[in-house]
Amino acid sequence: MNIRPIKTAKDHQRALQQLSALLDSDPAPESAEAERADVLGTLIEDYENKRVPIEQPTPVEAIRFRMDQLGLKQKDLVPYIGSASKVSEVLNGKRPLSLSMIRALHEQLRIPAEVLIAEHGCPDPEDPDGGDFPLKEMHKRGYFPDAPRQYKEFKKNASKWLSRFLNSTGARESAAAYARSTAHYRSTKTIRPGPFVAWKTRVLHKSEERPAVDYQAGIVNESFLDDLARLSIFDRAPLLAREFLEKHGIRLVFEEHLPGTYLDGAALLRSDGVPVIGLTLRHDRLDNFWFTLMHELVHVGWHLRPDKDAFFDELDTSPGEGDDPDRLEAEADKLAAQALIPARLWRSANVLKNPTPELVRQFARDIQRHPAIVAGRVRRDAGNYRLLAQLIGRRRVRSLFMIE
């Protein structure tokens, strides 16, 4: 029996027949026939890996296969999927996997994440969790540096690139995330988890490029926030703020928001315990920059804990489970406002009653804050966003980060 290279489908078929004949003869170990069978098997495997791609199973097929391996019943999936009805809907193809389901099935049952997220590459209008990823926008922004530059080519293996991107920083396993978004205040808006996870992952990527300084837990308190706010009087204050934070081990990253998030910023806790603040600068104004930064720092100092998941990832959580996001957001707003302008000073000020540019500037000098911070507070408390437009620092932030 001659063994020849396998170059065509015809060669492949002939080799399979030869291998089958050899195995049927049950050759003795280390005999010439056994060696021929081993060589043929290697050649066949090599040809099939190169020319006959194995079709990836669907998420449901992968889950059912793992259930068979572990001897699990449908009720055993409730801790990972959420309820008996959801398990039934998922296994019958009536409900797509949410991000929290994907994470639980990957971590607890060791089902490859690449298989589970395969159906999340494109928006699904029937997906109640909104677990889609804006792949085209992500590709355009360079989220996948090693992927083909042409989107058409990238899309052929989009699930592979997406899986690699999401798993490269442990973004799904980052301990916590608290995000400031207009979705908190307008009931018609909902943060879509896919874009949020993608944005969060990108921020974590960028945080690894920032200076590495050890973070001391508990360092963020009222005094820390006051010291930071005093930097606002300087011309390049946003950059000074980043330098101040990073000298204390807190990474500050700028990344434009993705469609469907309405994000101003987020506080993240990396798997190595390093806090990261991501800002979108969606509103390029000094007053918005300082309030959002302080808001996220309150989350760093008061709310981020290794034992808490990111609440925007947990859209299946029922009311009353764990911390109330609305309460935490309200607390962050209150403490941020206090850090920027102490309540006792604000109560005694006349700027809200008589909001002239001159009084705003004078009060800002008295409390050692930038006039944009005071102007922003006046506009918010008065509910009049046409006031003091010349003092809020329009287009004074983004350019500082973009020109570096």
Write the layout of secondary structure elements.
Elements: H1 9-24, H2 32-51, H3 59-70, H4 78-81, H5 84-91, H6 99-109, H7 113-116, H8 135-140, H9 151-156, H10 158-167, E1 176-181, H11 193-207, H12 222-229, H13 237-247, E2 251-254, E3 263-269, E4 275-279, H14 286-303, H15 325-340, H16 343-348, H17 357-367, H18 371-382, H19 398-402
Parallel strand pairs: 2-4
Antiparallel strand pairs: 1-3, 3-4
Helix pairs in contact: 1-2, 12-15, 14-15, 14-18, 17-18
Describe this entry's structure for a reader.
The structure is a single chain. With 404 residues, the protein is mainly alpha-helical. The chain has two domains: 70-170, no CATH class; 176-402, no CATH class. It is built from 19 helices and four strands. The chain has helices at residues 9-24, 32-51, 59-70, 78-81, 84-91, 99-109, 113-116, 135-140, 151-156, 158-167, 193-207, 222-229, 237-247, 286-303, 325-340, 343-348, 357-367, 371-382, 398-402; strands at 176-181, 251-254, 263-269, 275-279. The protein has a four-stranded mixed beta sheet, sandwiched between helices. α1 (9-24) runs antiparallel to α2 (32-51) and α14 (286-303) packs across α18. The longest helix is centred in the first third of the chain and has 20 residues, at 32-51. It is elongated. It starts with 8 loop residues before the first helix and ends with a helix. Mean pLDDT is 81; it is low at 120-131, 170-175, 182-189 and 309-322.
